[in-house]
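User:
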Amino acid sequence: MTEAPADNSSFTPTNIRSLRELIDLVSGRSIKEQIPQEDAGYAEVLPFPFLALVGQREMKIALCLTLINPEIGGVLLIGPRGTGKTTAVRSLIDLLPPVERSACFYGCLPEDIEAFGMDGVCPDCAKKFAEGKPLTIQDRVKLVELPLNAKLEDVIGGIDERAAVHDRLKLKRGILAHADLNILYADEVNLLADEIIDAILDASASGNYTVRRGPVSATYRARFTLIGSMNPEEGNLRPQIMDRFGLRVIVKGLDESQERLEAYRRTHLYRQNPRKMVSLYQAESALAAEEIALAKQILSSVELPEEVARQGIQLIQKMQIDSLRAEITLFEAARAYAAADNRMIVTSEDLRQVAPMALRLRRSRFMNDYFQGRKEEEQEIEKQISEVIKESIREG
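Assistant: Predicted structure:
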């Protein structure tokens, strides 16, 4: 990791060649002790700067990649308490890229016209499209948190109580609907109730879900990127939800004493004066957000060569991984990694860098043993059939 000066005086955007280099540079910088200024006591939510996180390079790379390419399938952070998992996710707020949202009450989008023609949108949007007016507005991706104590009605939506007071039956959107085109963060995801997990699985699989309450029903879009964190000491994660996460990052404590000391200094300064801490990384954070947005723009042009794709498939087969989501995650993460480096061709080295995050925790010992048992059973059946036929021939 590259050490950097204690201040921002030598930092210039032209010195940075890629997002990965920026992460390494800023993460290795040591800050000076700052004298906290007295404040007026007003509460202000200022997330800890993402680039101020000490170490944890793989976690930071994984989170940036999923911002660049939602097709990766999100990230699962696994590790003990106090290793910065939740802090890292919440600190993404300043790096979130822009997104095109529908400007219509009914949620009409240009892709609806591409798929279904003018009948795929409402009359007003059809008129706008014919006149060459945009159907979307640009907005920033948002971070939507799923509380651990959330009820099913909070997650999927339910009866609008304010409307019910006036004897009207109306549905209100739930957390999943608010997460459309955003990031859905589930802390302690392994402790969520089964019904919540099932709702997330259904919505993430289809990109929408339907709520029915008596005679009223509504279907909501839910195309979100799922980020989860968990402490394995508190319980395992159901295989169904584990398979939905693209990248899996093992988050351990910092090994180097100097890193732990630097982490304390940054945390201390942030607790004493959050605004000062944020200002120390403002320029780098703005540059990182710009790099992520640019990588997202060129992502569609990044190519995966046939030779590199075959290497990835061969690796997955040697790992004895059954889920086809392994290929999707591996290749989409490699494309995002190349885009973050401002390259248009995926290389074998890109696969090397993202493979641990994309493929770990995908092999199932149970399924391997199960298939081995079935193979032995099939061999026994074939053997017995052959013996029966041979015996029948001899008797005949």
